[in-house]
Predict the structure of Mediator of RNA polymerase II transcription subunit 18.
Amino acid sequence: MSSHFYEVALFGEFFSRDLKAILNRITLHSESSHSMHSREIVFEPLDAQPQREAGNDAVVLRARKELDEPGAGWVLYAYLKPESARVHPEATVRPWATCQVVGDALSFASALGYLRRSQIYKKGYVFRRGTLVIQMFQQEQVDPKTQEPIPAHADTLWEVEVKTASPIRNTQETPLSQSVDAVLEVQLLMKGLLDLRRQDL
């Protein structure tokens, strides 16, 4: 058994015209929902390119802040490369760690030797279903002058992420297969409306 914590996830996307039908179906099969508006900044190590050239995978840091929650701090996530599709063909399973950062997460990431790679804003909905969180959002572009979000165009694709709400350990009490089954259940519920699949990020 590994000492890693893992995230189990499936991903999908759809056009705006299907929003109502998909929203209705997910709402029907969820315990709760609320709107979301978040800012995410992705960092990679200064030596990410040489690491890749040497055949190693750099640990990517993702800083996330909820904009709808006044006073919400940054949460920093560290992701490793997803496990191979041979081991987990049905869902994306990847080691991850999360860390609440008090103060300036961006300076903190820089101090760790990380560079800012990209920034996005996500706006949409979050649903809870048992141990899973389902995020449904459109990406907003960033105004280069103000760094503020520009509302998404009506035709912008919607993205869906179905994933474990908190990091899980692969133990006898909580085998990873339980979480894989949980995301596959959502895949089945959405069949015919939304194609959810594993992806290597």
Summary: The first strand starts at residue 5 and ends at 14. The chain has one domain: 6-189. The longest helix spans residues 176-189.
